[in-house]
Write a structure and sequence with these properties.
five-stranded mixed beta sheet; binds FE2/S2 (inorganic) cluster; 5 helices
Length: 166
């Protein structure tokens, strides 16, 4: 990637939710601003902008990352997944989204996209978690509404359902 001056823009090409995507970003533009303002995907929320609350959690090359701690130029050539791509090409919600709905795991919904992305990656890596594992995963996210109980129920329910159908 060529070295540019601070006010010049990079052309950033990457894979977004399985499809090619591209846009312009100044060298210090955060990934949160790039995805929301340049690309137009607003599912990823932004609150603390310090890597603390988890609202901006997405996946980069399949691993959870905080969009507010990453420059847009750092995703050039990489795979980014956001909550908008969680259901893929299906018209309905995923089992995880449905379980959140059923278990009242969201209220205002501000924290939900980040938590869904963390949970999706968590269940890939830990298909048979216990409650302690789920609590540990959720400890990286701040939710001011729900008290987390519904989320824990939802995640355990999805893990159990997936395991019983294997
Ligand atoms: S906005 Fe990124 S962690 Fe809070
Ligand atoms: S549902 Fe409101 S912050 Fe979590």
């Amino acid at each position: 990637m060529p070295v540019l001056k601070a006010d010049q823009k990079h052309y950033v090409e990457f894979t977004l939710n399985g499809k090619p995507a591209a846009g312009y970003a100044e060298p210090r533009m955060l990934l949160t601003d790039f995805l929301r303002k340049e690309i137009g995907l607003t599912g990823m929320h932004v609150a603390c902008e310090h890597g603390v609350c988890g609202a901006c959690t997405i996946l980069i090359d399949g691993k959870t990352a905080r969009g507010c701690l990453i420059f847009a130029v750092q995703v050039a050539g990489r795979k980014v997944d956001t909550v908008e791509g969680l259901a893929g090409d299906r018209e309905d919600l995923t089992d995880l989204q449905l379980a959140f709905k059923k278990n009242h795991a969201l209220q205002c919904g501000f924290c939900t996209p980040g938590i869904l992305m963390s949970t999706a990656a968590f269940l890939e890596a830990n298909p048979d978690p216990d409650e302690e594992d789920v609590r540990d995963m959720l400890s990286g996210h701040l939710c001011r509404c729900t008290g987390y109980t519904g989320m824990i129920r939802a995640v355990l329910e999805v893990a159990a359902a997936r395991n019983s159908s294997r």
